[in-house]
Amino acid sequence: MSEYILEMRNITKTFPGVKALDHVNLKVEKGEIHSLVGENGAGKSTLMKVLSGVYPSGSYDGSIYFEGEECNFKDIKQSEGVGIVIIHQELALSPFLSIAENIFLGNERQSHNIIKWQDTFSESKKLLERVGLKESPETAVSDIGVGKQQLVEIAKALSKKVKLLILDEPTASLNETDSENLLKLLLELKKQGITSILISHKLNEVAAISDSITILRDGQTIETFGAKEEKALDDRIIKGMVGRELTSRYPERVPQIGETIFEVKNWNVYHPQHHDRKIIDNVNIHIRRGEIVGIAGLMGAGRTELAMSIFGKTYGKKITGSLYKDGKEIQANTVSEAIRNGLAYVSEDRKTYGLNLIDDIKRNTTLSNLKRISKNTVIDENKEITEAQFLREKLNIKTPSLEQLAGNLSGGNQQKIVLSKWIFTEPDILILDEPTRGIDVGAKFEIYSQINDLAAEGLGVLVISSELPEVLGLSDRIYVMNEGRITGELDRTEADQENVMRYMTGSGGANLANDN
Amino acid sequence: MQTIINLFRNNIREYGMIIALVFITALFWVLTDGITFKPLNLTNLILQNGFILVLAIGMVLVIITGNIDLSVGSVVAFVGAIAGVLMINNNVPVWLAIILSILVGALIGVWQGFWIAYVGIPSFIVTLAGMLIFRGLTLYLLDGKSLAPFPDSFGKLSSGFLPDIGAGDFHLLSIILSILLSLVLIYLEFSKRKTQIHYNFEVLPLWITVTKLGILVLVINWFTYQLALNKGIPVVLVIVIALIAIYTFIMKNTVMGRHIYATGGNQKAADLSGVKTKRVVFWVFVNNGVIAGLAGLMFAARLNSATPAAGNMLELDAIAAVFIGGASMSGGVGTIIGAIVGGLVMGVMNNGMSLIGIGIDWQQAIKGMVLLLAVGFDVYNKKRAGK
Prior knowledge:
The structure holds two protein chains of two kinds.
Chain A: E1 4-15, E2 18-29, E3 33-37, H1 44-52, E4 61-66, E5 69-71, H2 76-81, E6 84-87, H3 99-103, E7 110-111, E8 114-115, H4 117-131, H5 146-159, E9 164-168, H6 176-191, E10 195-199, H7 203-209, E11 212-217, E12 220-226, H8 233-242, E13 260-270, E14 278-288, E15 292-297, H9 303-310, E16 317-325, E17 328-330, H10 335-340, E18 343-346, H11 350-354, H12 361-366, E19 374-375, E20 378-379, H13 381-394, H14 411-423, E21 429-433, H15 441-456, E22 460-464, H16 468-474, E23 477-482, E24 485-491, H17 497-504
Parallel strand pairs in A: 3-10, 3-11, 6-9, 9-10, 15-22, 15-23, 18-21, 21-22
Antiparallel strand pairs in A: 1-2, 1-4, 4-5, 7-8, 11-12, 13-14, 13-16, 16-17, 19-20, 23-24
Chain B: H1 2-10, H2 12-31, H3 39-64, H4 72-89, H5 94-119, H6 123-142, H7 152-159, H8 172-198, H9 206-229, H10 235-253, H11 255-265, H12 267-272, H13 277-303, H14 314-324, H15 336-355, H16 360-386
Helix pairs in contact in B: 2-15, 3-9, 3-10, 3-13, 3-14, 3-15, 4-5, 4-6, 4-13, 5-13, 7-13, 8-9, 10-11, 11-13, 14-15, 14-16
């Protein structure tokens, strides 16, 4: 039994009307990787905000001991001072500053307020080596991918002499390779004596690297247990998180597949800025009525670009190729044309591309099809409320009223609004781009059920997902993309993680599991 | 009681502004020994501030889309100059000159909307350029001098009153119109209530609706009665009320209005929802050009001359009115009524401070403080609500 580096005892935090944390206990051993899991709204982020001083000492009850000393942090600066660094899901980097400037932001290498550039760059270089990032420290952060930006954040944490590193959903926006590298890095840092707390929805990651796991549910600690001894780890975690046994993570469904409803033929798309770079290369796909078709691929394979170029040419230049619906060629040069032809696209980024966060639920729901609730362009507000209410109940959006602003809801509920918005357009072809990113297990199951229902109604559904189990669990048929091309087409029965992964990386027979 | 508190809490933005307006009005009523409420002064209040209210209506749309228009002051002057050149120098008939002037306003909107919506230059830059361009063109057109006087019939636009019917000590038509307006408001409120009950939606307790309506009807009728004691309803007020009604309807009940809010709230999401956001921004600027043109005519008619310095800093009054009225700098939030209340706050202060003899120097400083406090109050409320 080694000593605890962190003990949080009986933490209770209330917001007006809500008890966000109720006597939560968290004990983290020195040198371990400790995973914190729980559904959205379970209190993980609140707990970490208490720990890092975002909610200052005094605004909560309970006590925090770090390395045996009681701590009363007034702000983040103080918690960082003792070596607790938190990396949020939304990265806090300044895009136009260089990697080195970002690493030392707020902590500049200086003498008398004059920056010492030599030190800044040479120390950055050492830190980048430690996190395994091969980029010049002078590169602007906006020029590197999200995966690398994550590494910059970790380098920044290391520069602050971090002892306890907290990562909030670090792999949510990373592809498989980057995620794997990040997890390896955490194990590497563990060897160097750095303790980590990992908050993640991805149970396979939690299982792969955790030493122990704490489960939160509804603001309470459910249990803490060692990860290595437990055999049925996934089941135990899911049971603890949702408070019930999920027999299956994907709802049962008997597909009833009809005629081909939608076809994309010889589709080519070029990069919007670099006109000579081909992003989508001669793609041919089709979807049938009642069918759920998955598109698998690594980040950068062109899946989102394909979807958006189809949906009203919202991505790319010099688009060539043709679209067919029910055998007839259609034009979808603008979003409204696409909607009129029965296309719907649920974006991967609901906050930026899906919702008007400062407007309420009903107005978000109806925006894409105001025609349906208006006469001579005058909106019938009563009809709007009725329709929105119907969808809210159908999708089980948990809010006190339709007047709630979208920005105040949890990720799962927001995603349901985006979905209801597109159901409201009565589409024939529904394209879902990462439909369950960053939402909890319970809400995921509900969204899967909705997708199944829609397919059962005769829609053709196209699902893009970076989570392979999701693609495999949902789809009747899977297209695999790599570098803008369709590299494989697999039936539900023949697809498994390994062969899909092989097509995803475009490397025929090589087994990638042990690669890099 | 709880319902009232909730009602107030959920609408603190709007009610807060109205309470501020009532407070400021009451303050000046006391400070001026009741002069502010004299029929003559109420008439003046409307005549002096009509064009600011008109400008605020156009400006709030621009600000809801997340843009700004710094050029309206110069456009006011430019359109006034056009009207002057047409009517005074070239004897163009008044009606034709009015149409042409407003057309010029629309063309200015097309020009600025093109650069902003389709080329993608920030509206701050485009309209800052417009502010300089149209002020310069005004100076050129007028050769640096004032043009006066306008034909009499044109002056009606800003200093005319509705004609009277019958005889008597007061203006009968005004009273009739105000009673009609009251009846329309009562009818609208109750028919809305009826459909809400029909659809099984939650409605406010009846007595709250009645009290709200009662106060509104009382204010409208008392106000019109005061005006009737003087010369009746000014043409300016008719224009302002018509614009309020039209634009409130557009913003609340039409697809166009919804698209304007959606564009300001999140342009990317609106784009992907099939809203043609570029077109929305473009037309909002064209609209603002027309509104500025109208205000320019009203301004010129009021001064009875076209002057190079006309409308100087007027854009800032309009923008201040919109922000006092609860609009958000980042777009997506704001109402026509809010902008009008904001404009009235500015107007009552201008009028009241002049009456009690506060100099232009302190007037400016006090108005600045009020703007800062009003928006500060708003930000504070938002933060509290966010917690």
